[in-house]
Design goal:
Helix content is 87%, strand content 0%. By secondary structure, it is mainly α. It has 3 domains: 54-180 and 193-211, no CATH class; 235-333, no CATH class; 341-381, no CATH class. α8 runs antiparallel to α9 (230-271), α10 (277-287) packs antiparallel against α11 and α11 runs antiparallel to α12.
């Protein structure tokens, strides 16, 4: 009688790793397919969660933006308060209150004085477009002979016909855009009002986050060490610190830079007696937040607005914006921002195009610091691998 022998399967670590990665790849592919197939439901659920957590998200966002200002007031302005535990708490609370007053005061001034003037400028621009269009057409027609150097009536008639046929369509399109802009502004104001409760709660939450931020950060560190271990936790904390520094340098620096450019633009336009100076300065300041492409995006509608009133003034505005942006790019920007991202111009443009395509205007703004963080992490990973390879070769 034959005895059955069970052959022991030998453990092969190499094949186990290959099988494990193959299994993970299959599972990831299935999950990815399920996510794509149910993307609308996932997006709807994500939106619901976002609405529920809106006050907390507002609070985190406000605290993150105001934290550098609070630190500066606490260390530079209120540093004379004695270094005691009670005095330290008082200094922090006073710093937060002062920062809140500055922000609320600035927003109030913009809403009370700035927004009505901008809305009035847009309304006046829409009202003037038909009259100014006729005047612009007459101006161009009268100067055709001088510009073209031709006395042939057929040439002049052809150009005049081209102007008469195409300019109305161009400015009708502009009128429709501007007409939609006013309701959009009021719609935004309405949305802002409806979400006022979330914003107020966000400010309240941000107060506690700012007042006790060291304990919150320490708590997050403990969670990372508990669940991920010391080695991985230290790497994540290091990356987090560097990312935070990069984001703050970029955001705060770009906001200060754009504010200064907007103010300089307004002063220059007032001196040049340009129409709609506040509206144009607002457009230039806001679009300047987008690196590289921002100045061009802002210049096009600004010049188009003035072109309706006067082609000569539009030319002057174009020259002024060009000089202003050169000053920003060569002098002001490097002074304020410095090497805030460490990216070359190519990678900055690359990140703006990719993130802008995926996430729109917000992506164009956020893309640069996000890509800078990813680029830095990838660069260090590659450098570390190259060092390890060289050590093995030696």
């Amino acid at each position: 009688m034959e005895v059955l022998t069970i052959r022991r399967i030998e453990w092969n670590h190499k094949y186990f790793i290959i099988s494990f990665y193959a299994f993970l790849t299959i599972i990831s592919s299935i999950l990815f397919e399920k996510i794509l197939g149910n993307w609308s439901s996932i997006a709807l659920g994500f939106n619901k969660i976002t609405k529920i957590l809106a006050p907390i998200l507002y609070g985190i966002f406000i605290a993150y933006l105001l934290s550098p200002g609070v630190n500066w007031i606490e260390t530079k302005v209120l540093h004379t308060i004695r270094e005691k535990k009670q005095s330290s708490k008082l200094r922090r609370i006073l710093s937060i209150i002062v920062m809140y007053l500055i922000v609320i005061g600035f927003i109030s001034i913009m809403l009370i004085f700035g927004l009505p003037q901008i809305a009035s400028s847009i309304s006046d621009l829409i009202r003037r477009i038909p009259t100014e269009l006729t005047r612009l057409t007459e101006f161009l027609t009268q100067h055709l002979e001088h510009w073209t150097g031709s006395t042939e009536m057929s040439d002049l008639y052809f150009i005049e016909e081209f102007i008469n046929n195409n300019l109305p369509h161009l400015f009708n399109t502009s009128t429709n855009i501007l007409s939609d802009l006013v309701p959009a502004i009021y719609g935004f104001s309405k949305t802002l009002t409806s979400g006022l409760l979330n914003i107020v709660l966000g400010f309240v939450i941000s107060f506690y986050l700012l007042n006790d931020k060291e304990n919150f950060i320490e708590g997050l560190k403990k969670i990372l060490f508990a669940f991920l271990g010391p080695a991985i936790a230290k790497k994540i904390i290091s990356i987090g610190k560097e990312s935070n520094d990069m984001f703050l340098r970029f955001f705060v620096g770009k906001m200060i830079d754009s504010l200064i450019i907007g103010i300089l633009c307004f002063i220059g336009l007032q001196f040049m007696k340009m129409p709609y100076s506040l509206l144009i300065s607002f457009i230039i300041g806001i679009t300047n937040m987008i690196p590289y492409f921002g100045p061009f995006i802002g210049a096009i509608p600004a010049i188009a607005i003035v072109l309706i009133r006067s082609p000569i003034q539009a030319l002057g505005l174009a020259i002024f914006i060009f000089v202003l942006q050169q000053f920003d790019g060569i002098v002001l920007g490097p002074k304020i921002l410095g090497e805030s991202t460490g990216l070359s111009p190519f990678w900055v443009i690359f990140s703006i195009i990719i993130f802008g395509y995926l996430f729109g205007v917000l992506g164009m703004f956020l893309g640069v610091p996000i890509f800078a963080v990813l680029y830095t992490m990838l660069k260090r990973f590659v450098e570390r691998k190259n060092i390890e390879t060289k050590e093995k070769e030696l």
